[in-house]
Amino acid sequence: MIQTPDADFDDYGALKDIVINANPSQPPLSLLVLHSLLCERYKILSAVHTHSSVKCVPENLLKCFGEQTRKQSRHEYQLGFTLIWKNVPKPQMKFSIQTMCPIEGEGNIARFLFSLFGQKHNAVTSTLIDSWVDTAIFQLKEGSNKEKAAVLRSMNTTLGKTSWLGGNELTVADIVAWCALQQTSSSNAVPANVQKWMKSCENLAPFNSALKLLK
After folding, report:
1. Strand order in 92-95's β-sheet?
2. Contact (Cβ atoms closer than 8 angstroms) between residue 22 and residue 84
3. CA 185/CA 84 separation, integer angstroms
4. Which end of the chain is less congested by CB atoms within 10 angstroms, N or C?
5. Within 10 Å of residue 83's Cβ, how many Cβ atoms?
6. Where are the domain boundaries for CATH 1.20.1050.130 in the chain?
7. Which of 73, 107, 79 is nearest to 19 (CA)?
């Protein structure tokens, strides 16, 4: 997991831009939750665009950042966050630091965005969180029914001991796993501890807003 100190974007001088390309047929729900959480911490200039490779984008996805009324000049924001609906196989992100390579994949982008909160973990917890992110993407979201059932059992065991997947506080693992569950089609019943955890997530406004995009 990429670790940064609590980001002070004012130190960077010019506004830094996050630009994400994503396919509207597979909305990266976790990135929209993270955008909402970042807006609670930083002054963010948000924008949504449609690339010419996409013919039609549902209205709710065009307004996934809410109504954007820019009342301040660009330099008064700490971070730019632009989402481009584009015909891409998986989400791609660029950050306006010249030495940084583009990041691909919803899980990897989510890790980077969450690192901007500056949350610190020891090596064991960081590895656990990373593992849950990969499990959510590759097994819960994209795996077979058998794999999904195994993940749900594992989550249920973990959440019987701690409030969140990574311990006693919300992490990127919870965000990615919750979003994967919302977008997965499975006949597996959701165990009791997982249901309780899902409700805890949905009590937070950014998760609740993301739910509306699925309707």
Report:
1. 44-50, 79-85, 16-22, 92-95, 103-104
2. yes
3. 26
4. C
5. 26
6. 9-115, 123-212
7. 79
pLDDT tens readout for residues 94-119: 987 666 788 999 999 999 999 999 88
pLDDT above 70: residue 77: yes
Three-class secondary structure of residue 5 per DSSP: coil
Q: Which two tokens stand for residue 114?
A: 């969450």
Distances (CA, A) of 53 to 23, 33, 213: 10, 25, 22
Confidence category of residue 66, pLDDT binned at 50, 70, 90? confident
User: Residue 178, class by beta-carbon neighbours within 10 Å (0-12 exposed, 13-18 middle, 19+ buried)?
Assistant: buried
pLDDT category, 5, cuts 50, 70, 90? very low
Which amino acid is located at 136 in the chain?
A: A
- Judge: domain 123-212, CATH 3.30.160.60: no
Structural domain 9-115, CATH architecture: Up-down Bundle (1.20)
Phi-psi label, residue 55: left if phi above 0, alpha if psi -120 to 50, beta otherwise? alpha
